[in-house]
Amino acid sequence: MSLSIAWIGTSVAVAAILAWATSKYLDIPKAHSSLEPPIFASKVPFVGHIIGLLVHGLDYYQMMRLPIYTLKMLNGKVYIVTSPELVTAVNRNPKTLAFNPFIAALGMRITGHDEPTSQIVQHNLNGEEGSGYVIDVHDSTVLALAPGPNLEAMLESLLEAVDNYLPHLQVGEVAEVDFFHWTRRMITMCSTRAIYGPSSPFVEHPEYCDLFWDFDHDLNTLMLNIFPYLLAPKGAKARATLGIAFQKYFENFDQAQGSAMTKARYASNTRYGITPWNQGRLEVGTLIGILANTIPSVFFMLAHIYSDPALLQEVREELEARSVSVPAIKISGRTLHAASLRDKCPLLSSIWQEILRFHAQGATSRFVREDVMLDGKYLLKKNMVVQMPMAILHLDPAIWGDDAGVFRPKRFLEDSCKTAKSTAAYRPFGGGTSLCPGRHFVTLETLALTAYILLRFDISPFNGPWAIPTPKQESLATNVFPPGEDIKVKIAKRGGYEDIEWAFEV
Ligand code: HEM
User: Fold this and answer.
1) How far apart are CA 268 and CA 141, in angstroms?
2) Full-model pTM
3) Kind and range of the H or E run holding 326
4) I want to staple 171 with a disulfide (CB 3.0 to 4.6 A). Which of 276, 455, 458, 498 is the partner?
5) Domain boundary assignment for the chain
6) Atom of ligand 1 nearest to the CA of 145
7) Are 441 and 151 in contact (CB under 8 A)?
8) Is residue 297 lining ligand 1, measured as CB closer than 6 Å?
9) Where does heme bind (predicted)?
10) What CATH number was assigned to the domain covering residues 3-505?
């Protein structure tokens, strides 16, 4: 599981409250202590803030300019933390302000695993008695995705797969594609190949790619867990089909294949007696973590660079000077050195960090397990929810400067922004003990794919000038929102480089 569900802790208050209000945590004190963070009042009782969040989206969080405040919702409260200092204080209390209770509250709703599996997931969830399933999976995932040979093997497998999904064009030929849809398919197919190996269900059934997105699209409704086949038939069916496909994958699991991450998960699942049917279900949740934030991030990375001709030229020059070599035996050949892009290409790396600052707009959540004084100043009451909205932290002019609301590709070349990044004000991957373990992989993946595409292709809008689409939050489990609308683009071999044969090296 719990990889599976882990991402859900990142969703907005509506989801947290939804699960929590219908879970076992119903013993909620009504009085508000003067030591608790001040209340942001709503004229509409119980659901006023939920309506506010639905109507205004993340802008709603901006309406109260305080380091921490309280939103009363349904029969409980959500503490909204907006200052980096208090976010750091939250990170220092992982046992009391915990991520894992959301796994218990939302796990079954998302993947549809059975009750005995839910019991395994919930046992010793917060490490009360040493280890437990969730802790075991978390720790082994962090190890499997740490920088080193495992990660490089994943990158190599990803790049080996990518050629199948890039257009094979003659000189002068042009491919017309829906840009987001094209990016989505390429990354779904290549990331899953890197993570599950050659027996990945997506290799044999590329059509599963669309099924995953049917599931993701219906996720919010599926989380209600009310007649899923009636209210979200497409998503429920997709989840079941993918679950069976991954059940078969794990029944025939080949230890020689698959990434270290998949082997680690398989080992934990087997050790804790999770049946293959449930392993399949849990893996459908894992796909959310692997894909849902990655795909919009790569899309916006490409869109921001291609839409700015001067930037495009500068990035290409940087790549050619620092990360591309000409093989001795082939004058028309070029090799991209993919693993070292982050260290060798500061401009490309700055753009990636700015993509995450500007586009990661979700909120990470924690459950208050015991009354606690945050930073010695604010009383947080047991059974409440804490949320830390990236939309506020990432766009705060006091932290990032007056142009915080502007996408500036070179921002992270400046020392002041490097300093801001080192604080809790920069949290695209969350923080504390549940900091995203996939951050190294997604960074390598995005930089390598972006570089490979920039070097080989020209991409331009099918009609008129570039217009970067506005992001739209689709699923509550996503922090980097996909574009609200797709754009049609033309892809051609890069002008002046038509005869070059490209290869990569990890
Ligand atoms: C741009 C892409 C990504 C973003 C923005 C992102 C963001 C996040 C965030 C915000 C969290 C929650 C952290 C917290 O609450 O403190 C998280 C958790 C997690 N992410 Fe990612 N993620 C991305 C890609 C990935 C990838 C590619 C993988 C796997 C290969 C992955 C695996 C995980 C896992 C396993 C957790 C749960 C951690 C735990 O159990 O404590 N993520 N991610």
Assistant:
1) 10
2) 0.93
3) none
4) 498
5) 3-505
6) 30
7) yes
8) yes
9) 436
10) 1.10.630.10
